[in-house]
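Give me structure tokens for this 528-residue protein.
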Amino acid sequence: MPIMASVMEDPTLERHFKGHKDAVTCADFNPNCKQLASGSVDKSLMIWNLAPKARAFRFVGHQDIITAVQFSPFGNLVATSSKDRTVRLWTPSIKGESTVFRAHTAAIRSVAFSHDGQKLVTGSDDKSVKVWSVHRQCFVYSLNQHTNWVRCARFSPDGRLIASCGDDRSVRLWDTSTKHCINCFTDYGGSATFVDFNSSGTCIASSGADSSLKIWDLRTNKLIQHYQVHSAGINSFSFHPSNNYLISGSSDRTVKILDLLEGRLIYTLHGHKGAVLTVAFSRAGDFFASGGADSQVLMWRTNFDTKSYQNVLQQNCRRSTPDPPPHLSDIHPRVPHLHHPQPTAIHISPKVADTLSTDPHVIELGETIHNTTLLSGRTRLTPTQAAANSHHSNGLPARHVVSSGVERWTGEESTGRADLIAGSQTGASGGGRGRREEEEEERGQTHPLEVLSGHPRGLNSTLRHIVQQLDILTQTVSVLEERLTLTEDKLKDCLVHQSRILKDVRASGERRRTESEETDGSSPVLFT
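Here you go.
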């Protein structure tokens, strides 16, 4: 039996992946531990195969920045959300097929599967949280109490709750059966940027643009841990499957690793040359990934989780009491406290570029689209010419890509810059398509997507008009839904008030009748 190390081993940089042409905004591991997905400001989804020297796939279809990505629980689907107001479901294979979901009327900031893989939850700049059916490929219902952009939304492990957060500086907890907001945490100094449940569903953590990270116990709705270890806003975090650790990525260019049982910062990782926009543990917790404004995806080997998960559970069982107070992983925490950066934290500055392989060969699957056509419930892409691979997708020089990409991802872009980017895209298109097709013909490859060409411009215009009308209809339904809810609440209040009045009237009548009877029965009798 191997002897377990008594001292933590440092996390190590395992690989880096280069292929995105702009800031990496999101990343997620396939549950089968064989693939890593990432989305970017360059509008593409990359699927990286983790085997050495394996090919990578680039999926193109979104017309704007990809803001979130997540594998389904079984790994057979990948969901992406985008500022183009759509959600796409992809098959992570050479086929490159995708299905488009539309219901939001503004940029979508997050997408996540329920733990049974049957539903999706999204958060959007239209201030709503929406739930979708994966099997029926349709919108199911909307949650509408946020008063500003919704940055993130997640299902609880049992699917009974949804947590969401946003620019209204609040974290909301929703009951999926009643569709009601059952709790709201509002003590944030800025936007709430990210929220998620731990693997047991007993706690939620939320991060803020004010660089704070808070953990709440859902059994008592109390704040049990509060960390202030970054020097800039936190963009993303991820719980280790054991719930013992948490990693966070920040605009201060670092990844921090927290020991939740000890309640302290244990590692600071310096690997990115710009803001760290996304971090994610693998499902087993043996690896974690980080992506940032430097267009890189770094994959790290965890190493520091030297304790066996089963041993931790056994220790927890021994420590638990019949009526335990609020805590993480059945271990009593320290009182809520503020964690300041500690000089004892280990700082790691990786020097190695890649320990396993050179940059993987990337296979292009699809082109940037301007229109979609629905055939038999499936979306087929109508491609247009894209820029040559040697140019950035937004047509800007390399030294300007990082700053503009991050600003566009966080929603702070100006109209003038958006116009410049649109113009650059138009000017850059052309020339690259024919060269790539010739290369594919030489290799004997065919384009994996069915290409629909020769559509008249009138049809394209009609399709755009239909999509616009559907957006307006969706917004109208959302408003009507909210008004109906308010009307129902007012009607309930009126019925309750009327019932109280009737009870008061009846009680008053009873009192008068009783008083009258007592008066009649107590008249004086004169004796002579």
